[in-house]
């Protein structure tokens, strides 16, 4: 049996629409992500368990994890023995935490290990991105690569091996607050403008390249000072009840930046101290999340996707 965990991620990371993403590790040691378990069976079978399993279509053929298994058997490992695949769906759907990417990454990584196919990093990332693209309304790697590789990743087709890991200040904390309602990624992509003006394009390129370079030079405060999203946040904020109030209130409690995680509705802050992160989390718990929501103080998950059990 092979059991693989894949962590939640923050797509876009404010400055890098579709090109920058970070994997999350709650500081209380809990696992925030999906798990795929693959074991030998007499014929292929699939089950979906976990807190959010009931939010997914009951028909297995509509579950991304099962679709990954069908694809893997047909195109990657036709001779793999029959398997039982269990997806433990621990992340809410349409949350902005890279939920669909998490299921896809955990499943392909588990199947690759079980079948011993040893796909390369690029082969796996491309395969994973194909499936993420099916549901999200656009091909993007900013959940897939951090979820798979861990850390903060600058990612895309122009980048060697699809990804470059960027350093962050080890003192930074990330507060991620899921308000408890869903926002479909395809819908949140459909409200974005189809074209950028020359000015906006130049500014985006400048901001992302400066941010990445400053991180690589370990000029973390300078990087933080330009960490803003002018590409997606202004169009998506109206879809997220409470976001504007949170963005206005949290800086006074120590948030260095407040932005949308992925397509939302999860929001995230970057804080320089644990005290500031705790103050932000407390405010978010009282003012942003409902009974179905949750809030985690996190560091980056530098391990990414990993095996929990091998039997
Ligand atoms: N294993 C899965 N995990 C997440 N979403 C899935 C899965 N299988 C199928 N889906 C479908 O894919 C869509 C994912 O929605 P999306 O808004 O892209 O989620 P997220 O932003 O959380 O990744 C939903 O319609 C959901 O029903
Ligand atoms: N770059 C994508 C990220 C979507 O992340 P998700 O967690 O909401 O699926 C976008 O902004 O659309």
TrEMBL record:
Pfam families tied to this protein: GHMP_kinases_C, GHMP_kinases_N
Record localization: Cytoplasm
Domain GHMP kinase N-terminal residues, every copy: 63-151
GO cellular component: cytoplasm
Keyword Transcription regulation in record: no
The protein's enzyme class: transferase
Protein name as annotated: Homoserine kinase
């Amino acid at each position: 049996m092979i059991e693989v965990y894949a962590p939640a991620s923050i797509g876009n990371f404010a400055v890098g629409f579709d090109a920058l993403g970070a994997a999350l590790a709650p500081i209380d040691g809990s696992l925030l992500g999906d798990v795929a378990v693959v074991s030998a069976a007499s014929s292929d079978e699939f089950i979906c368990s976990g807190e959010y399993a009931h939010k997914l279509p009951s028909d297995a053929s509509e579950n991304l994890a099962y679709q990954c298994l069908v694809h893997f058997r047909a195109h990657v490992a036709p001779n793999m023995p029959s398997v039982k695949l269990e997806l433990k769906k621990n992340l809410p759907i349409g949350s902005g935490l890279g939920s669909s990417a998490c299921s896809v990454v955990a499943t392909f990584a588990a199947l690759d290990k079980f079948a011993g196919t040893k796909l390369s990093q690029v082969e796996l990332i491309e395969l994973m991105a194909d499936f993420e693209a099916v549901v999200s309304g656009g091909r993007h790697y900013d959940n897939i690569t951090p979820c798979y590789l861990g850390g903060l990743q600058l990612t895309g087709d122009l980048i060697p091996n699809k990804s470059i890991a960027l350093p962050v200040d080890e003192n930074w904390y990330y507060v991620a607050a899921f308000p408890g309602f869903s926002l479909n990624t395809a819908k949140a992509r459909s409200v974005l403008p189809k074209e950028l003006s020359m000015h906006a394009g130049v500014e985006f390129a400048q901001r992302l390249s400066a941010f990445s370079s400053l991180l690589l030079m370990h000029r973390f405060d300078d990087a933080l000072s330009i960490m803003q999203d002018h590409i997606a946040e202004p169009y998506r904020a109206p879809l997220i009840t409470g976001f504007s109030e949170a963005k206005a209130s949290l800086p006074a409690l120590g948030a260095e930046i407040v932005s949308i995680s992925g397509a939302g509705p999860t929001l995230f802050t970057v804080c320089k101290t644990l005290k500031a992160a705790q103050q932000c989390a407390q405010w978010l718990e009282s003012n942003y999340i409902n009974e179905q929501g949750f809030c985690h103080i996190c560091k980056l998950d530098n391990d990414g996707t990993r095996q929990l059990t091998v039997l």
